[in-house]
TrEMBL record:
BP term (GO), one: protein retention in ER lumen
Similarity remark: Belongs to the RER1 family.
Positions of transmembrane segments: 40-58, 64-85, 141-158
Subcellular location: Membrane
Protein name: Protein RER1
Phylogenetic placement of the source organism: Eukaryota, Viridiplantae, Streptophyta, Embryophyta, Tracheophyta
InterPro entries reported in the protein's UniProt record: Rer1
Bilayer topology annotation: Multi-pass membrane protein
Keyword terms: Membrane, Transmembrane, Transmembrane helix
Primary subcellular site in the record, as a coarse category: membrane
Amino acid sequence: MEGIGGDGPSTATAALKQQRHELSRLFQYFLDKSTPHAHYRWTGTFALAFVYALRVYHLQGFYVVSYGLGIYILNLLIGFLSPLVDPELEQSDGPVLPTKDSDEFKPFVCRLPEFKFWYAITKAFCIAFLMTFFSMFDVPVFWPILLFYWIVLFVLTMKRQTMHMIKYKYIPFNMGKQSYKGKKPSASSPDPRAD
């Protein structure tokens, strides 16, 4: 009689933890598989953003949710465009941005890597989309004021970030694989392959 009813809740809890662990591993597996496919990931995120925008337009509401989403995306964008070690704020022993033309080139390292940037934006759109199903998040506001304030905030923030990028001469993204060519032989030195 001692074993009856005593193991029920603990067995159910263990089975639930095991199932949760398996789902977590499966989700991580698919995330890892999607890592090299940036174009497909971003296409899916833009499709999700389009569906979210259609839902907000159709419902004619949830402007505060959209404003919060916009502020969050702006915050993520600043992290993506910022260097890991900001030369204005701190000194580091690791790679830093060159501040003079004579400085050695060091690669740009984002504070927020592209994959984490994509994942955070996608998760934010999913959460905002789910919030549109609950009327308690539909706070009545005059949306043009929120839109105007967000545009002003975006312009001022991007202006400051662009000035920082110009000052320290870095570009936070690359456009494909770079190809390097060897040194071109000078006109005064003969080509050793000509013999």
